[in-house]
Amino acid sequence: MNNASEVFDIRLTVNNIEVVQRVLARMHLADFLREELGLMGTHLGCEHGVCGACTVRVNGEIVRGCLMLAIQADGAIVETIEGISENGEISALQKEFHQRNALQCGFCTPGMLLAAADLIARNPGANREEIREYMSGNFCRCTGYQSIIDAVEVVCRGKAGVQQGGI
Amino acid sequence: MTTDTASSHVKTHGRYIGAGLPRPDAWRLLHGRGRYTDDIKLARTAHVVFVRSPYAHAGISAINVTKAASSAGVIRVVTGKEVAALCQPWVGVLTHLKGLKSAAQYPLAMERARWQGEPVVAVAAESRAQAEDAAQLIDIDWEPLTAVTSPDTALDSRSPVIHPDLGDNLAYQREVDTGGVDEVFAGAHKVVEATFRTSRHTPVTLEPRSILADYNPAERQLTVYQSTQVPYMMQWILAKHFGLKEINVRVIAPDVGGGFGTKIHIYGDEMTAVALSMMLGRPVKFVSDRLESFVTDFHARGHLVKARMAVSVTGDIVGIEMDDLYGIGPYSGYPRGSANEAKQVLNLVGGPYKNRVYRGRTRVVFENKNMYGQYRAVGHPVACAVTEGLVDLAASAIGMDPAEFRYRNYINAEAYPYTLVTGPVFEKLSQHQAHEKLLDLMNYSALRLEQEELRRQGIYRGIGLAAFVEMSNPSSATYGQGGASIASQDGCTMKLTATGGITCAVSINEIGQGATAVVLQIAASAVGVSTENIKIVIGDTDVTPYGGGNWGSRGTGIGGEAVLQAGKALRQNILTFVALLTETEASVLSIRDNSVIETLTGKELMTLEEVARTAYFRSDKVPRDFSPELVVTRHFAQKTYDGICTNGIQGCYLEVDIETGFVRLLKHWVIDDCGTIINPLLVDEQIRGGVVQGIGGALFEECIYSSEGQLMNGSLIDYLVPMACEMPDIEVGHVSTPTATSELGAKGAGEAGTAGAPAAVMNAINDALKPFGVCVTEQPFTPERILRALGKV
User: Fold this and answer.
1) What residues does B353 pair with on adjacent strands?
2) If you measure CA to CA, which chain A residue comes closest to B688?
3) Residues A58 and A100 in one domain
4) Which residues of chain A have a CB within 8 Å of the CB of B721?
5) Region B581-586: what's the mean pLDDT?
6) Assembly ipTM
7) How far is A25 from chain B (nearest CA, A)?
8) To the nearest 10°, the Cα dihedral for B301, B302, B306, B309?
């Protein structure tokens, strides 16, 4: 029980805002974002690292928010769907997802967008097969994936061509 | 891709019906601005977690909660009896499924637990983590009992009877016999037979089941925020079982992260959360975790079907016989029963084919496994796999191409409405058209040539077809006539707002399928306004008209028609009012682009804002004997048939690696006929999603139970679901045969993909394996099963 109630103070940057908070040692990052900061765009689908709904970005890398403790994010730069929506980074992706109805219930969508943005940043020249492969860490029960892949592919092609602007 | 009939529907109804527009409400979901049940925070919320039975079948001799009750943050610990004192038990039967039996089920297990995962004790604490800590401190003395875990032996006299009062483990049985079966099989040119197995599936909505119950004892008002497909059904159930006045129960469905049938059933843990809110007088939240979802979200499928088909020398199906057996949970589900799969499998084996000689039996048995019930395409994928599997075997037996065999056996186009030998009526199918269109779309002949060529190179590709039917737009025959207060009608209330906008409150629900967008487009077309000026209100029993919500592919076909009629009525009321004000006739007026115009000249008479302003603020300008009614409500129920059947056909192209048994999906095609299409973008995506869910069942998904009734793969690590890299591109086309039972003409589209995909995949695998003379009929078609069929393991 002592371990469960052990607390730590952490300082981190979340969506460009500095946050100082006392957290339980056992609280995972996704719970921290949701419960302590009210950032409800990060969703919990499985809490065992498979579904990808809780995907967030920590120090530029996408991670499963359910597999990382909040205290491990001490000193980190954390970005969530809210942050990268507001700063316009993924506006092109959002537009293409919207045009193609690349979401139904929307529960997987924030994680999908984080993963897609990561792919586009790392490998904008990815072909369709590579996009399917890269997006396979994120589970969607509604769409059948095709429209998601289409949307990512369109943004990849634009990105590979011009190398500028939002994704 | 629409027929002339459909085009004329679209013209009649205006520019939004048939338009592939993006969903306006998806925009916020794309920004992380959705609001699901777990996103809602109320002051003083207690969080509840459950201690669940680790045994499939065990007596509970003692429960010690002392340590848990004094654990940090714990507010209350309750067991079955305490919850039962507040909540009446339920029995999952429907009177019109004659013979369906079940026992009284309580929210928490009482003296005996009957499946692994059944909730037994509930702990409410200040935080979920504290409740989880305390749950670990609860001691239960268990007396393990022998579990019934195989439908094959559930009816044996040596098997324990799960509910001794019921006499045996047979929950339901139904038989159909047209007569003449033995004669046609005895005289048939060829008889083919096979045993088809489908595995038990779990729906895996990405958002787990979630409920936030908020009981206010001062006014005996219960407000429930719930991830549900059926707010009004829940209102009825909660009022009934907790002894509350229905008007004091409000159910709000915020954003729902996937339904697929999971969220139309009653769950003991959710009822316990409500009970705790009533006990504590404060909000109580329960959000199922994924491991709980696996052992509590209603499972489905899991059929064993022995079937055979008799064919004539010319390739006509002359007889079908089948025997279906499946196991449900230890209780029939509530309030919809667990026998609808039996009904659908028995009714729909034989599919869109004209054979009239049929004998079928279905038996439903109780098991000590998780609860079981309606899940996307109830029974359809099973019936389709049996029928289409037999069709391919039969075609092969007489040396006919499977496409040609199907085409000659479809119900004749002039035979509609067509009454099945099992009872239901197909209003009108378009199977020949769909078939022709599919073969064109997939370039069937060229694929056959390619397949032949590759076979010579030792590459084994298969082409699978699956013709399917899908029951949609259900009438009251599905539930209401069986005594369940589940609405078969839906309603829409439309209001002209003070500045000329429209609000449109509907009883169907948004679960991601696009109901909001569909309602928006129908409303805009019906009234003659632009979609930007319409607000859709959905998912709240205090503000929407009464209706059934979303299940059984009914939202667009039934709810959509209510919207159309409400929109037309509001339009008429507006025109009548303006005609009076401008001293003309309503019949010469129209609404276009948010203004009332003279139809012939196009001259604008009044904007809708002026209309509203006059009605609401300048009643001095309104004649004394006239009251402008700028709020209207209309309802619609489909009463002509038990359901409106849609149809279509799927094609699958895949490659089997005969060394590893792995299947690589190359391409999938669907032609679907859902009548009038409101939004092709959404329909196509629905169908693709349905196909992928069906493919999941065909290739990956299987709830594996041990002989003791333990779910062995109850996590997303072990229970495989389709991910992007394994899925093919899916091309969707349409034939459109609007239903004549409504003006809108829309039928369902949500289940077609799931209904046909497993059969298409199975037939494609078996087509690939044809050179080896083997075939697989046990889903999922894992590499192991394929290698076993090939005799390699």
Assistant:
1) B410
2) A144
3) no
4) 139, 141
5) 97
6) 0.96
7) 12
8) 30
